[in-house]
Structure formats: C-alpha cells, structure tokens
Write a structure and sequence with these properties.
By secondary structure, the protein is of the alpha/beta class. The protein contains 12 helices and 15 strands. The strands form 3 sheets. Strands 3, 4, 5, 6, 7, 14 and 15 form a 7-stranded mixed beta sheet that branches. It has a 6-stranded parallel beta sheet with strand order 10-9-8-11-12-13, with helices on both faces. Strands 1-2 form a two-stranded antiparallel sheet. The radius of gyration is 20 Å and the shape is globular. The chain binds NADPH dihydro-nicotinamide-adenine-dinucleotide phosphate. The site of NADPH dihydro-nicotinamide-adenine-dinucleotide phosphate has 25 residues, from helix 2, helix 4 and helix 5.
Length: 350
C-alpha cells in the first residue's frame, strides 16, 4: 500500500492511496532489501515536493512522497551484510521520496541500521529533523559549553531537536516563537519549549521588553538559526555576537532572509545556508553518517532527545495526517503509521 501523486498540486487534491504494487513479493537481488516502513514523517519539504515547489522533484510521475522513515528489515539479499532481518533502519540517501508506503524494496545501501532501543517517535524524525539540528550545531561554528544559540520557529520539529541537543551539549538556547492566538495557548507553548531545555522561549514581540533585553545581552549568541525569513530572520541576526554564524535552512514565511548591513560591517557575521539533503548525498561519508546516527540514537535512548509526534494510520487516516502537517500551530509532527495493511506497527524497538 502507498500514497502517490500523478501531478503536482495541493496534496489533499492530488494524493491517492494505492493498495497494491506489482513487485511487492518479487525475489530480491543480492544487494537488495525488503522493509516494512513502520513510520514516515510528513515534513514541509514533502509537501513542497508534492506541490512542485521544491528544488528537487521526482524525475517522473506518478511518485510516492516521503523522505524520512523508520523501517524494519523483513528480508535481505544474499550479499547484504549491514542489515539483518528484524532490525530497524533509517534512510541515508535523501531527497528521492518513496517512504509513504507499507513495504519498500530496493538497494540496501540506501539504509543504515539503527541501534536497538530507539523509541519510535524519535526514530521517525531522526534523519531529517534531528540530523539537521545536530549538523547545524556542529558544522558552522565551534561552540563551547556556555555559548548560546538563538533560533526562530522555536516550535518546529527541527528547533525542538536543536533545543534538546543544545542542552545536552551544555549550550544555552533561546527560541523565538509566534503567537498562537490565545494567552493560554501561548503559555502552554512557552512551557513546552522551556521544558525541552531552552533558557528563554520568547514571542517575537517580547524581544524589546525591558526585562528581556538584559537577559539577552548576557548571552553569547555565536550561532543563529533561521527557518522563517523576513522580520523574524532580522530578529535572530540582531542578537548575534561579533563573528557569529547566521544559518538559514528554511523559509516558512516565504519572505527573504533580511540581515541589516551593519551586522556584516561592524560585527563581521557570516551568513550561510544548510540543506540536509546535500549533506546526506554529497558531504557526509558513511562513517560520518554512522557517527551521527549513533550519537542521536544514544540521546534518544537516554530520553535526552524525544520528538513530539502524532501517529496516523496510512490507510485510514492519511488525509487527517496531511491536514495536520499543513496546518499552522500544530501540536506535533504528523507521522504516518505504515506497518501492514491493518495499520499494525511494532510498538517497541527490537
Ligand atoms: P514543522 O512542520 O515541525 O514546524 C513548522 C514551523 O514553522 C513551526 O514552528 C511554525 O510555527 C513555523 N511557521 C510556519 N509558517 C510560518 C510563518 N508564516 N511565519 C513564521 N513561522 C511559521 O517544521 P520542521 O521542523 O519540519 O521544518 C522547519 C523548517 O525547516 C521548514 O521550512 C523546513 O522546510 C525546513 N527544513 C530544512 C531542512 C534543511 O535541510 N534545510 C531540513 C528540515 C527542515 P507555528 O508552530 O506557530 O505554526
């Protein structure tokens, strides 16, 4: 069973559920693997790919969307040594889609085994959200304990991972948020982000409050992360310390990332971009990827890194999942439970 689309457009209009694929039971080649997809997250890039508004689109249609998943190995080809039947794995080549399905068959080299004991929620968001967070914390500036990172879209899955990983590294972090519509909802969101380990969780209009400014001045923001653009990007950039790095990895507001000229001249900040797909496909070696997955798995197994997800059955609830994924102010990352036809999914890691 899988979801696919024949033309680009609104996901709720163009996605179709298909119950059977011809080669699902065909014998495997020596380097191939057959997997059961346990859970597949719905990320903004998946939605943009379906809409046809992403730099990387499927080479032909129909296409199955989905770039992040956790799978269980059902069967391996005769020459496959790195994956074992029963174990869990995650994709390590990115951007090609194809994860919103119950079973997957193809090259074993596209997947990497996950250590046992990683909870499903963390596993389902590991290779996009958590890997992006870790790479951005490690690859742009050498942060030492006590340094600080500031980010906008503090409620997003990537930002939540940044907050938790930063805390594990003894870094300070500040998350900028947008208001949810009621004081109660704002308070609940702030409490959630603080509970993840942020030093401050601020709505962007609070940045100029007299009691907030001194606390921000105390912090040494050597890294700023922007996934919004517009005024929100400027709010991040203005907090940065001299010679800090400003990294843009998303553009949720669809506005350009504006940085005041003076920050380049008088603070010598560096503005860069990050794309996990490029890192997975062109930059990271197999050893780098193993090290990264191991580090994140350790954090997940110890309970230091967890992910707020809501599971939806692929067959019966995919529409609700997509609706949640495209909504504002969502309470969790929408994740498709793919498993088998009945929607069953292994509840615990082997
Ligand atoms: P989520 O779907 O978990 O969260 C979306 C976030 O964007 C929420 O914080 C939401 O705020 C905020 N948001 C949505 N629309 C706007 C807007 N118009 N103005 C301000 N904030 C807005 O997102 P992910 O964590 O999965 O992804 C976050 C961003 O990072 C996306 O742009 C995504 O494409 C990008 N990304 C990039 C990667 C890369 O390699 N470059 C990898 C992974 C993600 P609210 O809660 O208030 O609705």
């Amino acid at each position: 069973m899988h979801l696919c689309y024949n033309c680009h457009g609104d996901p709720l209009q163009v996605l179709r559920l298909k119950k059977k694929k011809k080669d699902e039971g065909a014998p495997l080649g020596p380097q191939e693997v057959r997997l059961r997809i346990l859970a597949a997250a719905i990320n903004p890039a998946d939605i943009n790919q379906i809409e046809g508004r992403y730099p990387l689109l499927p080479s032909s249609l129909p296409a199955v969307p989905g770039n992040e998943a956790t799978a269980q190995v059902l069967e391996v080809g005769s020459a496959v040594a790195a994956l074992k039947a029963g174990s869990w794995c995650v994709p390590v080549s990115a951007g090609g889609g194809g994860m919103w399905r119950s079973t997957w068959r193809g090259p074993a080299a596209s997947w990497m085994a996950l250590p046992a004991g990683v909870p499903l929620d963390a596993a389902a968001t590991l290779t996009v959200s958590s890997c992006t967070a870790l790479r951005m914390l490690e690859d742009f500036v050498r942060l030492k304990p006590g340094d600080a990172v500031v980010q906008n879209a503090g409620s997003s899955a990537v930002s939540r991972a940044v907050t938790q990983i930063a805390r594990a590294k003894d870094l300070h972090s500040v998350s900028l948020l947008r208001r949810r519509g009621t004081p109660e909802a704002d308070d609940a969101l702030r409490a959630e982000i603080l509970a993840l380990g942020a030093d401050l969780a601020l709505f962007e209009d609070e940045l100029r409050d007299s009691d907030v400014k001194p606390r921000l001045r105390e912090m040494n923001f050597r890294l700023g992360l922007n996934s919004v653009g517009g005024v929100s990007a400027e709010n991040v950039a203005k907090l940065l310390a001299p010679k800090a790095s400003f990294v843009t990895y998303g553009g949720m507001s669809k506005g350009p990332a504006t940085i005041p000229t003076g920050l380049f001249i008088f603070k010598d900040i560096s503005a860069r971009g990050f794309w996990m797909t490029r890192w997975m496909n062109e930059v990271g070696t197999t050893e780098d990827k193993k090290r990264m997955l191991l580090a994140l798995s350790d954090l997940a197994r110890s309970g230091t890194l967890h992910s707020t997800v809501k599971l939806f059955d692929l067959e019966t609830e995919w529409r609700q999942a997509v609706e949640m994924a495209v909504a504002n102010h969502k309470p969790a990352k929408a994740v498709l439970r793919c498993g088998n036809a009945s929607g069953g999914v292994a509840a615990i890691s082997p």
